[in-house]
Amino acid sequence: AAKKDGRGRAKTFSRSMLIVLEQREMLRRSLRTALQDKQFSIEYQPLVEPPFSIVGFEALVRWHHPLVGTIPPNVFIPMAEADGLMNEIGQWVLEEACRQAATWPSHFTVAVNLSPAEFLREGLTDRIAQAIDMAGLRADRLELEVTESVLLERTTNNLDTLNTLNVLGIQISLDDFGTFYSSLSYLKNFPFDTIKIDRYFIKDLESDEKSQTIVRSIIALAHGLGMRVTAEGVETIGQAVWLRKEGCDRLQGYFLGMPMPADAIGAYLRRSSAMATL
Ligand code: C2E
Ligand code: MG
Ligand code: MG
Ligand code: MG
């Protein structure tokens, strides 16, 4: 793999670059059989109403590669999308998360992320309706998280899809708010129940007045539009206290609870109900 640079010299890939490319190719190949080899799992991260009331969990997919170890979704989801594998993986996550949530106390919700490709694929509302039906999960216990990027294309269809989900009683959250286009027209036109403020604005909340101003404004904006607001990436007690004081409805982040496997939820719930009585 040699390429001439501007001055006519042959430029070769460095060895480490080659290794990175080979690793990516290796990963892409093994992604194809990962589902049938049962290499995916889901971790659940608590969503908390301040101060200590757990309202549900967000499902976060994990890929446990037999040689490489656990690979984060930000790495493998783009690969899966490029190879047309994300639909199948997403369908598995949806069904598994609904099945899991059906075993929880009935006031807990489960939030499932949908990538743009999953959201835009034909038949989404049917697949969702079928998944909650199969699991025996009440529609209002499922939340779907989408990012603004899904709203950029095919706008009328997107609106139809969101409206249908809304009519079914499913909750819809706008994830990572503030990082993308953040066009306010989305908020005007699409029926979101919740806005999730990206952790980019939360991480320096205690020291940065600009972040404070932005977060305060997003909370006011959401509430003015009748939407709930969740802060992502809450890592410190200082952030949690500030957000509670400013009226943020829900908190999510390592301070409230790390993502955990399904079988750790019981112990987490017992621990946190003990904490709440302190
Ligand atoms: P997201 O939906 O915004 O999820 C929140 C991410 O922030 C998760 O990363 C979570 O582990 C991480 N996080 C939570 N609390 C904290 C905190 O206090 N500090 C910091 N630094 N990070 C925190 P994760 O699990 O690596 O997922 C990354 C992204 O991958 C997700 O972002 C979501 O967009 C996507 N994703 C995860 N699971 C799925 C899935 O099943 N389907 C689809 N389509 N996308 C998924
Ligand atoms: Mg999310
Ligand atoms: Mg997010
Ligand atoms: Mg985020």
Strand-and-helix sequence, N→C? Answer: EEHEEEHHEHHEHEHEHHEHEEH
Give every kind of bound small molecule, once each.
ligand C2E, magnesium ion
Compute the average pLDDT: 90
The number of distinct β-strands equals 12
What's the helix count?
Answer: 11
Backbone CA Rg: 21 Å
Largest sheet: 10 strands, mixed
Shape designation: globular
Tell me the span between the first and last alpha carbons: 64 Å
In percent, how much strand structure appears in the residues?
Answer: 15-25%
Model regions low in confidence, pLDDT < 50 over at least 5 residues:
none
Q: Which structural category do the helix and sheet elements fall into?
A: alpha/beta
> Could you estimate the helical fraction of the residues in percent?
40-55%
Organism: Ensifer adhaerens (Sinorhizobium morelense)
Domain EAL: 24-273
Protein name: EAL domain-containing protein
Structure characterization notes:
Strands 3, 4, 5, 6, 7, 8, 9, 10, 11 and 12 form a 10-stranded mixed β-sheet that branches. The protein has 278 residues and is of the alpha/beta class. The chain contains 11 helices and 12 strands. The termini are far apart. Helix 3 runs parallel beside helix 5 (124-135) and helix 5 packs parallel to helix 6. It binds ligand C2E and magnesium ion (MG) (3 copies). Ligand C2E binds at residues 45, 59-61, 72-74, 77, 90, 93, 113-115, 118, 145, 175-176, 199, 232-235, 253-254, 259. Residues 24-273 form the EAL domain. It comes from Ensifer adhaerens (Sinorhizobium morelense).
